[in-house]
Amino acid sequence: MTGAGDAGRSREACPVCGAHALHLLYFPDVDLSGVRPMDDLIGMGDLKAEQPPGIGCEACGSEWDALDDFRVAQRGR
Length: 77
Ligand SMILES: [Zn+2]
Known about the structure:
- This protein is an alpha+beta fold.
- The chain has a domain at 12-26 and 53-77.
- The chain has helices spanning 37-42, 67-76; strands spanning 22-25, 54-57, 63-64.
- The protein is globular and about 25 Å long.
- The mean pLDDT is 75.
């Protein structure tokens, strides 16, 4: 059996530092100075809040906004 020791390791290595410590970044969907009760009342809210997560490296702190950016970093090193 293999792979038992891979828990907690990302499948792919960080293109910057090589660590298998990548994780998904979820952008906070609340970037407001306060509550917006009107949005809740309307209920049709901001569909643009549905953004794909970025990718970050816990080892060196590098971040990529999207998978495409990450792939570019992998190829461009
Ligand atoms: Zn890294």
